[in-house]
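Exam revision sheet. Question 4 asks you to relate a sequence to its structure. Input first:
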Amino acid sequence: MSLGARKPWELPQVEIVAIMVYPSLCISEVSHKIVILSIYTLTIPTFKNIEEERVFWETHDTLDYLDETKVKKVRFPNLKKTTKSISIRLPVDMIDELKVRANSMDVPYQSFIKMLLKKGLNTP
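Answer key, structure tokens:
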């Protein structure tokens, strides 16, 4: 009995012995038991309203709809970045000069130092 390229919902009622999620379907028979080696990623339906979407996700697993091949890294540049305190030794006259320049810009001197570091890092 060859099952060919049937969709998971077209399979006969059988005992499933192993499931691994991948974007394509590959089925093999093992002594009257079907081993699903991979499953199609499903398409998320269009919802008429939020209530319909809520009911849908209460009864479905989001992992069934995840296509790992389309996952991308994202950055959230407007989030407040985590900071870490460091200790750096600078000559007193350099600190005084930083404070004078920061004061002339009406900026706290530590913020001014961060501005200078950022500018330096962005310069090739």
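Marking note for examiners. Residues 74-124 form one domain.
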